[in-house]
Structures
1.
Amino acid sequence: MILDKINQAGDIRKLKESEYEELAREIRRFLIKKISTTGGHLASNLGVVELTMALHLVFDPSKDKIVWDVGHQSYTHKILTGRRSGFDELRKYGGMSGFPKRKESQCDPFDTGHSSTSISAGMGLAMARDRKKEKYSVISVIGDGALTGGMALEALNNVSSLNSNYIIILNDNGMSISRNTGGISEHLSKIRRTSAYYDLKEHVTDQLEKVPGVGKTVLDALIHVKNNVKKIFVPGMLFENMGITYWGPVDGHDVKGLVTVLENAKRLKKPVLIHVLTKKGKGYRPAEEYPERFHGVSPFDIRTGQVIQKKTEPDWTDVFSKTICEAARNNRNIVAITAAMPDGTGLTPFAREFPGRFFDAGIAEQHAVTFAAGMAAGGLKPVVAVYSSFLQRAYDQIIHDVCIQNLPVVFAVDRAGLVGSDGETHQGIFDLSYLSHIPNMTVCAPKNVYEFQDMLNYAFTYSCPIAIRYPRGTGWKGLARFRQPIAAGEAEWIYDESEIALLAVGSMVETAVEVRSRLKEMGYHVSLVNMRFVSPIDDRCLAKAVRNHSLLVTLEENVLKGGFGEHVCTWLEDDRSRVDIINVAVPDMYVEHGNVDLLKKEIGLDADFILKRILERIGEQE
């Protein structure tokens, strides 16, 4: 097997050209087999096999810097840099990451995980190279979906200031996660339809260069009218008008052709963008036909393409999807906004039922939030559905455009807390901190799916900015009989006793139920409060807890700094209360990838560790 010859970076350059095609087939078979077992990003990786091979044939990844935007398409890069054995533990705790990681390999020059960052990072690396007078190539690989992000456009606008070689690969498969939308996408579609222009140009150039004596002179003359001809055939000339040399489109599945283009680009003394056309999911029919489904996929049956373990219970996203659709039928002002994640956020059913009230802003969270603010100022009720880790990209817009004006935007913050396999860049463990200190922002979290429905319906009629955070996974149905009406800043006493008070937020109420049960078995009196609101905090609830308990325990799936527990500590200090307190939260660290239950155990968010802390503190008191 040819793949057996690839054991470290550079080994691909020892192969014969006749072996390239078979290597590509073997890589695809390997990826399909491994990801069918572990889960992971499949379609995007199948689409860049030949492109990655060409990059490794032309460049030395141990010296040259290849920056993968988002990074979920870097699996072939990992194979070609000697990490094939790591795929058995892909995205598992302690195993290989699904994204590029500097600490994992010297062939990963920059950590990625969020979209639209590679051009800025690549330009920074190129500038550092030039300032230090070092010799290496810098290549940023960015998808057409990521190019819709404002950060990518800001970087493109700045790239022309470089007076040295820098290569941008535009991997154009017509998709981000879902189908691309917007002006950039349409521009690229037009370019794809003008391939005939490039074929004609290459043919004329080749023929003229063969004419002795006069061919070069005629060719030089033609260069003077080149730009005018381009403007006729290529709509917009977006990249060249920004001062970046544009080459393409080129076939992203032709290794030899790509190698030729990359070798030529490597010799330029200025920035160049190479427009590469690829097919997402290439080589595996189910992924080709349903690339959205195979973007990030759970373990699946290779023969059928069907996920092996289908969910039997609705997850939190399903509950959001159903509830917003029901509310929109009765309120025509409700509109929904996503940043290129209609499937992931559960808005696809809404888009089908209310196409005129659904808006996909592309990979542009900042724009999505201010767009929502504008609609709210115009009298609509916008709902921004977004993952917690992606919402942090729009922090300024939340403050400046929504909260200062106190506009009634609803933020449905999905994937809050630990999300597992995607690791540090995707854990939603900062939102309570970065949202709860913003004036005019109401921040809440439901204990179960029933309260989630109530919170959403409350938010749809709320007159101020409000964020509802909810976790990934199956929606919890515990404590169903406790369903008090939602009122801003009002907590819910589930069990009202004395001695120990468990003050839990959102997903941690389920854990608190287990902790309380075990403490009760030991003979302790334990209250359990579903805090529901982190901002505004329930002052009366805290005052009652201080009066009747000697130990307060706050529980949240958020980092400690700036989180709910610290807010309670501040309240106690202001109140001059002398009650003992334990803050249970995510340690102030970046949590790596792995199974969520295992991660909770490792960082001290599981019932066993919380119980141990409580008993130790009680022992100290005694």
2.
Amino acid sequence: MQNTNKIPLESMWNFYFCKKSLAEIDVTEISFNDIAAVPGCFDTGHPYFLQRGTGCYRTFVDVGGEIELYSEGLGLRADIYWDKKKVAEIDAPFSKNTFRFDAGSEGRHELIFAVNNQFDDGKASLWRRDYDFYAHGGIYRPVTIRRAEAVFAREIKIITSNIDNGEVEISCVFDGDIKNIREAEIIFDNSLTVNKLPLTSGQGSAKFKVPAFKLWSPENPALHHASIKVGDVVFERNFGIRKVEAKNGKLYLNGKKLTLIGYNRHDAHPDFGYAVPTAVLVKDLQLLKQLGGNCFRGSHYPQSEEFLDLCDRTGVMIWEESLGWGNREFSLTDPDFQEKQKRETRKAALASINHPCIILRGFLNEAGTHLETAKPLVKALADILHEVDPATPVTFATDKAQKDVCLEYVDVISFNTYPCWYSGNEDEFMNHDEFKRVMDGLVEFASQEQYINKPVIISEVGAEAIPGLRGGQRWSEEYQAELHEALVRRVIEDERFSGTFIWQFCDARTFAGSAAQTKAGNFNFKGALDSHRVPKEAWHRVSQVLKEYEL
């Protein structure tokens, strides 16, 4: 019998793979003939390397009564079984879900995750095969079971309301046995002072001053702790006090002008897929800090709780976004797709709401935002993020440049642009005139009256570099380095820009489709590091530039 309320299930599970859909799986007939790590991606190694189908994971848990099953993220979809009975379904990759149900009598119970990674190219799909990052199958992130408490939290939000006096607003939504509960008791940082939060039907919101508060910043990533007691149940949350503003055409953190210099980063590794070990996460953050960078964009899906915790502690700023890539009109106008996007965007924001490292929130990378028909969904998603997290600016990365018609809904304008790479220009060596022309055009467009007060970020620029290929021509390390250097210098020197996220941090696996000839070895080689985090010339060049400007 487990002697703790929390039962982590990170271990070796029994495993079975077949090339069937979830609808074709009968868990009563499965013969588990292999083992697999959880978290883990079943298609990163043999005998299931890059295979598409259903991986069935099984473990046994000693528990009983009402329980909560938490899945932090998997892909691409899953059915979950408890003692051979389906208890839950997950239809969205990287989605964080908690399921509450009766586990039955005390004793040993069987838990099965049937996880499918076959493509769905329908209108409502959240991961089509043309997405430019690999659709791994597996349980990406931790699975945990807790014995259910009488009261459980649907929402706990701690949002900074005043950085001058350390005031925060705490908003809570509790459920369960709340009939006779009229207040929550809140203690900050283990102090002796007990603050009271009035509750009506399990809900309440009030402002409190955090004693001896410190502001969170990249230079001093100070964290605070709140202990929230409701009845006999205590909820623990870490948070930071900080203020992010998008005003007068610039970004500000705690009243100081902010320049973002960092990378788009896939939470992926060639050996582990999206189940990235802690040591790799720490290494990635250390590399960025040593470079002189200060931020990552979590492209293009919600980041893990562990990674966000590490960013909180190390002072690395994050652009967090819900899953979406290149969605066009046939998806953007589809009611099912719209509802999934709204649901998952809200869910992701609520899951990460108390992380001070998140300084931008976004959605729908490179969607069809040049179309009038995209406006309803873009507005709805921006409204959701503003409602859930009013303290963090909202953006989305557009590749439509001057044709985008949805920029009125965001606080920050973010351009994905690839001069000297996807420009149709056939120059063998980098064309600096072309680069300048494209950047000048974006500045001119974003300086129109309706946009002049919105900060501007270059959210993607890049070029592929095969590790070890030298000479200065396209695909060489020097070509990529020259482009990255030109980008960073322009962003630092041009007052219209508030920063850039270079595409990309490290080489990452992508899907080999009919355009496979443009993705050598099924990898996107635009990384400044290779897939195992070995620096290319561009990494060293950017580091030198940042030292020169003393950023």
3.
Amino acid sequence: MKRISIIIIGMLLVSGCFPDERNNFMVPDSFGITSLENVVEASVHTGSFVLGIAKSGKGQTAAHVEINRNQNDIDARLADFNSNHDTNFKAVMNSLIEMDAVEFDFAVEEAAKQVTISWDPDLLARFMGDSDQYVIPVLIKSDDLTVQVKDDRSLLLVHLKRSSVSLKQKAVTRTIEKKTVEPDKNGNQPPLKETVSLDVEIDNPIAGVGITYPLEIGSTDAPAGLVRLISQSVTIPEGGKSGTVQVELDYSVLLQGGVLNQFPDYEVPVCIKTDGMTATLNGKDFHLQGLSYGNTVTSFKFIWKETKKGLDVSREWGLYSTESESWSDYMTGFAAGADRNVTLDGDFVYVAETNQSKNLWAISLKDPGNYRKLPVGTVKDEGIFYLSCPRVIPNTNPGINDGKDLLVVSNMIEGDPTLYVYLNGIYSDPVPFQMTTWASRRLGDTFSWWGSYQDGVVFFKDYNTTQGTVTFWLSGKTTGTLFLMGRLAAPAQTGAAAYFPFPDDINNGIISVRGGETSWLVTASKNLKTLEGADNNATLTELDPAWANCSFRYFSLAGKRYVAVARQDSAAAGRLIVLEGEGEMGWGQIVTGGKVVYEAAIQNDTENEALDESPSARFSGNSGMDLDVYKSGEYVYIAVVKQNIGLSLFRVSNDE
């Protein structure tokens, strides 16, 4: 016990020899704005913004700090910031904003105070105009000698964002003919009602704010009930980007005694009533001001079409401009200067942009104003272009994608490409399949396929060399690697190209090089579906120069065979050509001797005849065209793209 007492007394004596140094491990008091970033975003429409000013450190000093409202000081600091950060921000004038306090006295242990900045949303929105570079600079200073302002936390730029609301769809067109509304010869009645979704979007969502608009049908000569609002209003949820409203189209009102008679073109406007807008902020009513508006009307157009006997090809819609040379100028979100390839199914046209944006678009077959990006979270950041060519490949396994056909997309790379397969539908990320080849060659500009996903082959043309087209088995895999199985050693020409095998004969088809001067009928020397590992020399028959620089697809309709051709004659002339075969003509014979039954420019609104040789309206510096076909019931749809110019959808029918 005596020993323990001595130790304790000794420890107390030792500790008493040293001063209390605890505060030396903390920095001296300093002032700073609480935001961890120098630039924060705020909506101009909310009318206010709250920020914090903190005194941090030992907490042993009372001090004074203030917000510097001197315009010269603000302008100087903003100029320095722009110079150091390569920005072009402009200051909102002091007279347009108010602060609930600009001077603050901090007690010894007081840590933070709030400042509310407020403004008139309408006035400030008008002041900003179309510029998105305006900021409210908040600059703090202190003349107190004991507490300094930290340089890196002395300036905050409140970047103001304006928001615009718009109906995404500008027009929805329906072509009505007898077969679309009258019973067929077996008494089967086509559906007479259709539901269309309209989207109202806000370009810059406002945190915590929801917006509701009443809807109305505008003045029209159309029969009552042709267009009906399922809901009388549409709501963009709090903090959301868009709201959806459904509209019902009822074609039965066009019939008289079950018969469709000729009618004048009808147009039915559906409008959002901006003057009836209501808003909420975090669940409470809120007076939202200063919004701007883009398109506020969607027009439903109904066009009567006479049902013709024989082949009928019509342009359903086109996405192109007669004024601009770039999609990005008239298609929101699309990239400038990107080559594109195309495919389609019964619901969407799919477009891949060949650049490093990973943009893969699904465009509604019935409503081209309704388009969206597809998920690409599994797409690798590698290759010349991350995504390049989409194709829809038949799927015969009901356990995959609910038995629906599969969207498959390639990348473009110097080496082993990757094939991205949407095994779980287009709204889930695709499954990547690594493809193993023999050498570092450029593959993936385009590709074609034969057969089904479970029992088929894909073909990639080697761009760099004359070594032809490589082939891979599609064996219904859901995991693993696709291995090179052979090479079709034709043609002896470099460039982006594809082999287009005939539907009923994988060993015969056409090879055409983009930008090339000719194309070839091809007959493989060995079976392309079973060959492994060896070159496959081919018999080449050169086609007429008219079929150079083309893409080919094949389809049958009403007992006849057709070849659809996309041909780029020049940078300003891209065409769809439909060839018809006589009797039992083979596919190759149709190309060499079939009848041209339809021709039109990809980008041209003037065609009135079946054969129209008018050029496209704009020049394109990008080479190549692409097309694909999809059969749905009595119709065949053809999607044709001219790279960096536009996209058109055609509908083919044949009432023999």
